[in-house]
Amino acid sequence: MRTSQYLLSTLKETPASAEVISHQLMLRAGLVRNVASGLYTWLPTGLKVLRKVENIVREEMERAGALEVLMPMVQPADLWEESGRWEDYGPELLRLKDRHDRAFVLGPTHEEVITKLVANEINSYKQLPLNLFQIQTKFRDEIRPRFGVMRGREFLMKDAYSFHLGEECLKKTYQAMFDAYCRIFDRLGLDYRPVIADTGSIGGEASHEFHVLADSGEDDIAFSDGSDFAANVEKAEALAPTGERPAATQALSEIATPKVRTIEDLAKFLSLDAANTVKTLLVLGEATKEHEAPIVALVLRGDHQLNEVKAENLAKIASPLTFATEEQILAVIGCNAGSIGPVGLDIDVIVDRSAAHLADFVCGANKNDMHLTGVNWERDTQNYSVSDLRNVVAGDPSPCGQGNIEIKRGIEVGHIFQLGEKYAQTMNCGVLTEAGKNQILTMGCYGIGVSRIVAAAIEQNHDKYGIKWPAAIAPYQVAVVPMNMAKSARVKETAEALYEQLQTAGIEVIFDDRKERPGVMFADHELMGTPLLLVIGERNLDNQEIEVKNRITGEKSMLAISDVMSLFA
Ligand code: ATP
Ligand code: MG
Ligand code: MG
Ligand code: MG
């Protein structure tokens, strides 16, 4: 590819709208452009990366025995009524009508369509097990699309669904998928952890999430420092042994006793623990008589003008910095309205994820061993209430019995799940067994966020100059960068010949044939993260040499032109 014929679209300035580094770099390096909230156009460079991720995923799925299909993105409402999710799915499901007034949805996932397909297509136990996958656009009307393609509304997912005659067979495929996922994330060159995920009512180790470790991650995952136990925080909490809580958790569970019934009680409690620092409790909202509005308070350091804010302004708690400076905020506390009842207040600690610098918010009293770290919150879709305080905190004994819990941030890039008969039962998906009886099938489902992976890879691989792509997904393997080609026939000839040679050898090469200053060229290729730069300068040609710059290690070395192919051996 010649840059003169390419759409580089690099930006010098960091767009103000982008909060996390991957989003900033994806815009600056010309990978994507925003169309509307949560909707993106992939530009040529970005699309190359996306396709590479997709191909690695496809290769490993096929290697694990899954078969590719392609289902429609638009799905009839009937299928969703049949499964019960037309009622249950909630506002992330985008519903639409066609010209005949028939209802449809934009697929956020494809269990309904695939279960119906298999119910119609598969009649005999002899055709099982079966594992079908697709790489397809999904639409989820996320309440808060953010971080670029990391949480888009339209995004690319690989989703697979397996069908079995029983749990034993499902477990085998589940393990095969688990292994395939590990190979995929290994090949992508990512630092990731498979963690046990919460399955709600199904229970057991029937679900795993795959998380790429990054501070910008929206999930908390708990590890043991003494074994290979890893779980998402909800699951670690469900497994956690009781009775051995460190001081911080106890302090908060004390707040959650019936003793604390009003904001005044709460202020009193906290002032006692941090008498020297807590002077003000900024009440953002109070429970109404009907117990409808949540109580939310900011605990502030030092004097602060007391400021009552009504419940309708609660949306602003998405950024406590609206009300006070970072130094002033000691803790942000919320109480879930739903739990204000005879059992007393249920105190939650809010961590603001919209402000990156607050991501590591430490909560609780301002005293050693009285802090909670790594706590999480989720905003209820409409009500701005906060989720229950997660009980597992750093330093807790690991549920596996070995070591203590450490909590890190992760980006969920994959999720595998043993569904059991959930969809097959309601949608009547069964086959005739050997004994001639109808048997409902057992299912598994397996998702990977293909487009999210592109952003997650950047979160882990960048420096102040730009992206440092893992080789497997770099848009180009090498850039040919001639210095002042317009002034030197020798430089031009060498660059053209090298470009030709690399192309013929099937290497993905980008040839910078623009009439730009060297500084501009280097900045663009560093931003785009091309792993190798071949710099052709007039002087070095006296020795028939070029300079090789390694973007990943930063190393520079001289190389005889005749040896150039040795770089790709
Ligand atoms: P999250 O917890 O981030 O909302 P999820 O648990 O709702 O994700 P799944 O239903 O498990 O997502 O979907 C499988 C995969 O699809 C996820 O592991 C994630 O990598 C990806 N994914 C989900 N939602 C989005 C989104 N809005 N934008 C990009 N990728 C997404
Ligand atoms: Mg989700
Ligand atoms: Mg999730
Ligand atoms: Mg998930």
Automatic annotation (TrEMBL):
One of its GO terms (molecular function) is aminoacyl-tRNA deacylase activity. It is found in: Cytoplasm. InterPro entries: aa-tRNA-synt_IIb, aa-tRNA-synth_II, aa-tRNA-synth_II/BPL/LPL, Anticodon-bd, Anticodon-bd_dom_sf, Pro-tRNA-ligase_IIa, Pro-tRNA-synth_IIa_bac-type, Pro-tRNA-Synthase_IIa_type1. CDD domains: ProRS-INS, ProRS_anticodon_short, ProRS_core_prok. Residues 33-482 form the Aminoacyl-transfer RNA synthetases class-II family profile domain. The keyword Secreted does not apply. Pfam families: HGTP_anticodon, tRNA-synt_2b, tRNA_edit. Belongs to the class-II aminoacyl-tRNA synthetase family. ProS type 1 subfamily. PANTHER family: MITOCHONDRIAL RIBOSOME PROTEIN L39/PROLYL-TRNA LIGASE FAMILY MEMBER, PROLINE--TRNA LIGASE. This is Proline--tRNA ligase.
